[in-house]
Task: structure prediction
Amino acid sequence: MSHHDKMIPRHPFAIRLWHWWNVIAMFALGLSGFYIHAPLTFKLFSTMDTARTIHFVAMWMLAWGIVYRVFFAIYAKDYKNVLFRLRDFKDFWSLTLYYLFIKNTHPDYGKYNPGQKLMYTAIPIFAIIQGITGFIMYWPNTFSGLAYALGGFVVIRIIHYCVTWIFVIMFLVHFYLDMAEGLPVLWSMIHGKIPADFHADVKTPRPEKKAEAEA
Ligand code: HEM
Result:
């Protein structure tokens, strides 16, 4: 592949803008969150007030970023690209063989592979769990009933902490796999385009998909 290859659009501007917006929000939430959890170990902020304010502002940033992304998925019918459906499960086998370097090719999954779809669909679900557990801890008196129904404040705190780690692990997997596919994937999230024949040799056409589309 050379840099003279024809480039085709991959990510519209709105997706790129909100992707990086959400990345900033996620990093701010993670760093301030670890400080709030263990301020003496994780000496990144001067005071608890600073960390809590950052955590709160970043929470609203992420909330709006996700609302926008879900709106876009529906409005631009882009849910077809990102939404994980049960039938995507059967594609995990071919993807696993590809990721384990057992096979050099995989079926053409469409814009995102089943692993990406699973993770992208999981983000808003985990974010809602963080929102609920977060507000319970922020307004403990208002939500004491709900807190006890869910197992008490200790359980709420553990859930919030574990989901944070799920996000950290998802981020590491996301970053590694995108980089492993090649830098053009990273650039595509910056300038929006990708070479037309990128990984064309990796994707095998799907006869059954074609038949479905024509039916
Ligand atoms: C330094 C950190 C990050 C980098 C370098 C990065 C990079 C990328 C790249 C290159 C893509 C395009 C993948 C493709 O075209 O197949 C992508 C997609 C995506 N990333 Fe990240 N990412 C980062 C952090 C995050 C975080 C923290 C989140 C969680 C909010 C996230 C959520 C997503 C989503 C949902 C997509 C799909 C794009 C879409 O909305 O359609 N990323 N990322």
Q: What stands out?
A: The domain at 7-114+163-214 is CATH 1.20.950.20 (Fumarate Reductase Cytochrome B subunit). The pocket of protoporphyrin IX containing FE is lined by residues 10, 15, 19, 22-23, 26, 69, 82, 112, 120, 123, 171, 174-175, 178, 185-186, 188-189 (CB under 6 Å). The radius of gyration is 20 Å.
